[in-house]
Design brief:
By secondary structure, the protein is α/β, with parallel strands linked by helices. The protein has 13 helices and 18 strands.
Length: 404
């Protein structure tokens, strides 16, 4: 780095610290983005400078980024620099790296920004979780994302890719990479990968595999398998998560595979993952007006299907909250791709800015629903109630509720 660039980076780093501190002090923000924007305006290559001589793992995918990133941070046996607030574009990455000088880095990355962030950070490991529709008004064609990832890995021979072997679009994106650790993990959502990205003919699925008539298929040589038991590089791993759901077991499998790629002891890492009870408020139990609420985040059809699978089969009432703000995507038509029919027999209370759209969708699904203004409280139950919300609605309910 030239002396001039070094000075520019130093000035930019100081600006990040100052602006973020002022943002927090004046309660105008969390100090995780605005400072990064200022720093990048001063030194556009600041992320590259901050990443130099650090060991960097990047995590991307439509669902599970925040949880998997938190798992990797928890499993690493040292202090880790990470964007644990979910600010997953370069400004948030810069803020995270300014806030911590740790040589170990794990960053959640927005799918559309993976190429730029991989190049800027010279990441050693990239974790690819899944690809499905999300925020239809911003990123409506997941195959474009897959093509961009594919081009990236064709030109990045040094990076190790930890990839979900059961998502055909992820496999397509990673198949040109030089070093891939394929992970055979449960991936029930297939609606966004019904045709082959090579020949466009229908993909065929059975209980354990998938393939296309042109020869494109699930990788046969895998590093990690997850069924009743987790096995990484031929070694059984004692995974016993407190976090609910098969999707979290899949997230953990990819997180531990990434940690194994940087030579972290798996037994110790697994014990730390097993101790996690919540991530950024997800799965936490909180109190509101006499109710005990378990907060669950789902922001697209694939995420909702996964979360709905975790609900107890007891017919209990469920609360759903849907907004359609900038961070959610303004188009809520994705609600019609969520299999809400599984909620038949339950009463569902509808909250959020788009509670009427939600109630209409539930009516089509034959689900008993009650529309609630956010200040209206359903009857208090002595049981813990599951509240499933999309992104900004989830943040609203975290602010509205208090710790039990």
């Amino acid at each position: 780095m030239s002396p001039r660039n070094s000075l520019r980076d130093a000035v930019a780093t100081g600006a990040v610290r100052t602006v973020n501190s002022v943002s927090r002090w004046t309660s105008r923000g969390s100090g995780t983005v605005i400072g990064g924007r200022v720093g990048l305006a001063i030194s556009p290559r600041l992320l590259s400078g901050l990443s130099r001589e650090r060991e960097v793992i990047l995590v991307t995918g439509t669902n599970g980024k925040t949880t998997t990133t938190a798992m990797i941070a928890a499993g690493w046996a040292r202090t880790v620099a990470t964007n644990d607030t979910g600010s997953n574009m370069p400004a948030g990455h810069v803020a995270a790296l300014v806030a911590s000088r740790s040589s170990a880095v794990v960053l959640e990355v927005d799918e559309a920004w993976l190429g730029e962030v991989t190049n800027s950070t010279s990441a050693q490991v990239v974790v690819l979780l899944n690809l499905s529709r999300d925020q239809l008004d911003r990123a409506n064609e997941v195959r474009r994302i897959a093509e961009r990832w594919r081009a990236l890995f064709a030109e990045e021979p040094e990076v190790t890719v930890v990839a979900n072997a059961n998502d055909p679009l992820v496999v397509y994106a990673a198949e040109l990479a030089t070093n891939v650790a394929w992970c055979d993990v449960p991936t029930p959502w297939r609606t966004d990968a019904v045709s082959c990205p090579h020949c466009t003919e229908p993909l065929h699925f059975d209980a354990s595999s998938w393939w296309s008539e042109c020869g494109f298929q699930k990788p046969k040589e895998v590093t990690t398998t997850l069924s009743d038991e987790l096995v990484i590089r031929g070694t059984p791993v004692a995974l016993d998560l407190q976090l609910p759901g098969e999707f979290n077991r899949a997230n953990a499998a990819l997180a531990l595979t990434a940690l194994a790629s940087v030579n972290v002891d798996l037994d110790a890492a697994t014990a730390r993952l097993n101790a996690l009870t919540s991530v950024a408020g997800r799965f936490s139990v909180r109190s509101w007006r006499g109710h005990r609420l378990r907060l669950l985040l789902a922001k697209n059809p694939a995420g909702f299907e996964a979360i709905l699978r975790t609900l107890n089969d007891d017919g209990a009432a469920v609360w759903l909250a849907i907004n359609a703000r900038v961070a959610d995507g303004h188009d809520p038509s994705w609600l019609y791709d969520v299999p809400f029919e599984v909620l038949r027999g339950r009463r569902v209370y509808c909250f959020g800015d788009r509670r009427l759209d939600l109630a209409t969708r539930l009516d089509y699904a034959g689900v008993d629903q009650v529309v609630c203004d956010d200040e209206e409280s359903p009857p208090v139950s002595g049981e813990t109630v599951d509240l499933v919300a999309n992104y900004t609605a989830f943040q609203d309910w975290r602010e509205r509720t208090s710790a039990c």
